[in-house]
Give the backbone structure.
Amino acid sequence: MAVEITFELPYTQWDWKVGFYIALIGIASGAYLMGYLADVRSRRHDEREHGRIAKWGYLTGLVGVGIGGPVLLSHLATPFRAMMVPLIMTNFGSWMAIGPYLLGGLVVGSLLLFLWVAFGRERPHGPSVTTEGEGAAADGGRDVASDGGTDSGPAKAATGGQAGGIRNVFNRVGILDYLDALADRTRPTETVRLGIGALFGVFAAGVLVYSAMAYGTGPADRVPLWDKTYLIPVQVFSGLGAGAAVAVGLAALEKRSVGRTIQSYSLVASGLLAATLVAVLATVALLPEQVPAAEPAVENMLSTYATLFVGGAILGGLVLPILLSVGAVVGQRRDALSPTAATGAYVAAGVLVIVGKITLALTYLLAAEFTAIPLPM
Amino acid sequence: MSTQDDNGTARVIPNWESCIDCGACEVACQRTWDLPPESDRIQVVALAHGTDDETNKPMQCYNCRDAPCIDVCPTEALHYSQSDTVRVDAGRCIGCHYCGVGCPFGAPQYPDGEVPEADEENLMGAKSDGLMDKCTTCEPRQEQGLEPACSSECPTDALLFGTPEELSERLEEDDTTQPFDEEAAAIIFGDDADMIVGGD
């Protein structure tokens, strides 16, 4: 007996793992780029706060790909074969082959830049250490909350000692000294380091674009909802905005305090999230007019998947984080908000944008429909 | 009906008006190639399900002249054989389903079934493990001068096999509806599309 055809639903080919992956690599690439921007700006302005954004931006880039990559691999039938990228990904006419190379560059760049800014005696944006004992003071004192009370021996003091939670994590694992030594041994001059960061920034920008193209391009571009004129701005703005918001949230959580510089990054994140909102609303309002075949999918977003799209992606993932971020900055600048409350707002915004980005990616997968199969009916 | 020759790639195409949804093509394919039950290299499917236009049609890979699956395959597991039909190299496929998104006809399958070890050594397609599998146009049968199993066993001649020229003659003889619209014919037959959709 004949079975019902399901060619009209891309979700039957790509499940939630693909959406999850696309969302995380978007956040990762956006975070790297915002981190690099902060890294460059730190040479001229408030070094320490820019440095915090840079450090967390690079780490978010690394973790984003570190989680998203394996999730995608678990979707594949032969993950180990797929990991042999240079041997197997040979069709450079396909974005699915180009993507892994871009991701590889992003991982290497994030790893190197994070190592160089977070570890070592000579790390940029680190505490100015002249003698043992001054290190802790220069680093803002012993931050027990984020440090967890590490033993401040000579090595720790010389490298900035209790310079935040992430170093403490590596200290507890017992590899902090090794990483400090490795970072100092490998770190190039600042000019070269930033040059390397820019080179890998090209890969990060490529990943940002790939997060849109991964939805299918060229001969696979037969899903009207994934029209690249609308999807690329959505993915670029949301990746940058979410990446910035996550870096701000982590920087706030690290020190439980946020100065004016990081507040500015929070406002930048809000602006990018607002741009995402405009791009998404433009998709809903204009795409069906320009591409009539996209109407059923847009209708799906607003009806069947309204909870996911409107509730999760729009309100929870864009509007609320914007309000929280802007509200926290305004509250801090008017002295109307305690540091704890402000930290909570930045962290909440960071968490919400991650959830929102994943929700948005899933909505684009679930609501999508193929163009009608080209057969006479 | 000929097999591969110099006059163009021989393909199986549907003569949909004749299909009675008996499933003989599915059985012939699975029996000939000892396929697991999950494998649907050819499948009678319901189009426009639940509407007044609902109709059942046999569908399988048409070995497109401009195959979208080959263009998008990141690992080049999909390629043209010497006879210009589309083949999948199970040793390169990663099961990413990109070909499934690219194919307008829903031909790629990703069966999870297990196959006997002996069969794994001489696969035409993947058959198992979530890798891409599809119709092979029964190439080994063609080498013996036989038609593909599905068209050979179809009781109502709802599956036609031949080169574009032969298919065109057959469709004209039977005075049947053209099986594809212009867009689909261009993808499947390339420069020979006019023979099928009646261009001058």
Chain A touches chain B at residues 1-7, 10, 13-14, 75-79, 81-82, 88-91, 93-94, 96-97, 100, 216, 218-220, 222-223, 370, 373-377 (CB under 8 Å). Residues 195 and 201 of chain A are 9 Å apart (CA to CA). The first helix of chain A runs from residue 16 to 41. The radius of gyration of chain A is 22 Å.
